[in-house]
Design brief:
Length: 400
């Protein structure tokens, strides 16, 4: 299963470092080639000789060999690796990974690694539960680092709680699962997808505008997932504070009209599209070129309909895949089915504002996928898990 995989095993200064010996042995037994990088403190917990013997290679700790001045290149190590697995990972190393402190070879290797990174935290229960550690883990997870959860149990301090590094056998299973997931993920190579995301902004005058609560998180997660599976992705984005997902071409727009023009253009040579944006349905008939002055009277702004982007792409779909979203407050399923027909979607992702944790702003969503054959309801999940489910369904249609 791990045959020929190149794994850098990073070991940091935790009492759990003794388990890294077993972990290394198991990885080698599964066919992986393992190079061990230890932090200086890790050497106090497990000997370099043990790790060198088990990994069948000299271990690396220093930036250069003090005897002959030869550099240990963290860049070529980072390029060689299919995975950087840091086990055990101390609170200290996790914090440095978050902030980019690069004061040992393991951290410089982390910063140069192009491969998947996984960490197996190990620390005392209070350190693990501390808001700083939890936030650091969350940040790393958001940046794509796989977190191999510690277990609850007796700790070196004598206290009992969560913080004990996962057992080597479990870590190996998770490493295998990560590789399996990555292999599945080249499946959309050669496909071009467009994704619309975020809120549009309709100007009233040079100062005011009409918009909505969409943050773009769901659309960005979908764009990221499509790109991770090898698709070429154009992300047509309303205003958002989110970073551009790796490998995605982002086209920034403001108004519904701008988004329409960009989407129609990108649709020409696309294989599919996901319409995730919260597009304004109405826009001011006229945009004042100077700031409107207030008076004591009420005021009315006349609005006209915007163009329906999804409907336009759906009308010109041929045999491409088009996915839409529906956010409803009532008659949810019937409305979603209406959209399926009207806009010629292959399926509609229904999220209800009635479900706690679903819809705008949050990091979670609860969706039902509706196609012409019926509906599948999913539990509350993170937006990236929802993206996974949506792209899985896109793939099933691609391969049908
Ligand atoms: O009709 P409704 O706006 O509820 O439909 C929602 C779906 O249509 C979403 O997928 C949304 O991105 C898309 N849409 C669009 N252009 C519009 C309005 C909605 O692409 N002007």
């Amino acid at each position: 299963m791990l045959n020929g995989k190149h794994i850098i095993l990073g070991i940091t200064g935790s009492i759990a470092a003794y388990k890294a010996a077993m972990l290394c042995r198991l990885l080698v037994k599964e066919g992986a080639e393992v190079r061990v990088v230890m932090t200086p403190l890790a050497k106090q917990f497990i000997t370099p000789l043990t790790m060198a013997t088990l990994s069948k290679h000299p271990i690396l700790v220093e930036f250069f060999n003090p005897e002959n001045g030869e550099w240990n290149s963290h860049v070529s190590l980072g390029e060689w690796a299919d995975m950087l697995l840091i086990a055990p990972a101390t609170a200290n190393t996790l914090a440095k990974m978050v902030t980019g402190v690069a004061d040992n070879l393991l951290l410089t290797t982390y910063l140069s690694a192009r491969s998947k990174v996984a960490v197996a935290p190990a620390m005392d229960l209070d350190m693990y539960a501390h808001v700083t550690t939890q936030q650091n883990l969350q940040t790393l997870a958001e940046r794509g680092v796989a977190i191999i959860e510690p277990q609850a149990g007796e700790l070196a301090s004598g206290l009992v709680g969560k913080g004990r590094m996962a057992e080597p056998e479990d870590i190996v299973e998770q490493v295998k699962a990560i590789f399996a997931e990555q292999e599945k993920k080249k499946s959309l190579e050669g496909k071009r997808y467009i994704v619309t995301a975020g809120a549009t902004i309709e100007a009233i005058d040079p100062v005011r505008y009409i918009t909505n609560h969409s943050t773009g998180k769901m659309g960005y997660a979908i764009a990221e997932e499509l790109a991770m599976r090898g698709a070429e992705v154009s992300l047509i984005s309303g205003r958002t504070t989110l970073p551009t997902p790796k490998g995605v071409k982002r086209i920034d727009v403001l108004s519904a009209e701008d988004m329409y023009n960009a989407a129609v253009k990108e649709w020409e040579d696309a294989d599919g599209g996901v319409m995730c944006a919260a597009v304004a349905d109405y826009t001011p008939v006229a945009v004042a070129d100077r700031k409107l002055k207030k008076s004591d009277d009420d005021m009315r702004i006349e609005l006209k309909r915007t163009k329906d982007i999804a409907k336009e792409l759906g009308a010109n779909k041929v045999n491409r895949i088009l996915v839409g979203f529906a956010l409803e407050t009532d008659n949810e399923e019937a409305n979603a089915e209406g959209k399926l027909q009207r806009k010629n979607f292959d399926f509609v992702v229904l999220n209800s504002l009635q479900d706690a944790g679903a819809g705008f702003r949050g990091d979670t969503n609860k969706v039902t996928l509706i196609d012409r054959n019926g509906s599948e309801e999913h539990p509350l999940m993170s937006k990236s898990e929802v993206a996974d489910v949506i792209v899985d369904k896109i793939e099933r249609i691609e391969n049908a």
